[in-house]
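Loading example: each entry is read as two labelled lines plus one structure line.
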Amino acid sequence: MGWLKSIAREIYGLFVDDGSFAVAILAWLVVCIVALSREAAGAWWSGPALFAGFAVILIESVLRFARQRGK
Amino acid sequence: MLAAIVAAVGPALTRIPLHLVQLVIGTMILLFGLRWLRKAILRAAGLIALHDEAAAFAKEAAELRGAGVARGWDKLAFAAAFHITILEGTEVVFIVIALGAGGSGLVLTASLGAVAALLAIVALGFALHRPLARVPENTLKFVVGVLLSAFGTFWVGEGAGVAWPGDDLAIPVLMAAYLAIALCLVPICRGSALAGAGEE
């Protein structure tokens, strides 16, 4: 059963490295789905807004790591 | 075994509503891709260590040599090869299933792509005569991270009912945007870490 645990651990590790980074991505996705289902579905800016959120999360996570390493 | 997983799960996904598949698989690709891209940026900036494939190969090889050589059926060799292949192969299965979920027939196309990549890796192995130390691993991860992040963003958007200007043409635009952000972040992170070290 050890190899099954290894596979499960490996699969989890495929998607989650920094917990807060993964949670932020999922949270932004949920916010977008809720907002789009209410009124903005199909709006031209919905795609760029979705991307912008992910980009900001990536930038914040990387810069936060760099600042922590620099201290 | 990996082919069996693809054969079992791939066709079943085509029976689930497409937007749901795009949302779930897109989320997995997005988490996977952004995680890779983040790590590749940090490695390129020198904030986390690059993988030393030569050292890893030497360590594993020494451990296996220490276990001795078996005559006939070598259980250790079988277990080591199975373990390594199943773990790395699981990642390939996820990518094949994810790309194949877009419609019927795509699983076969994605599988052929994976087989072509396998053949390329085998050819590289014969050509290099040594572990993958010569292959620029972080550059590969950088590129794959950009591609998966772009595909993942596009797919979760499609699944969530987002409108992409230019439809499918948004994918190369997303790739270019993620690449530009990543390339800008590398020198900024390097500078930030150096500035922090200089203040001490």
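Chain B has one domain: 2-193.
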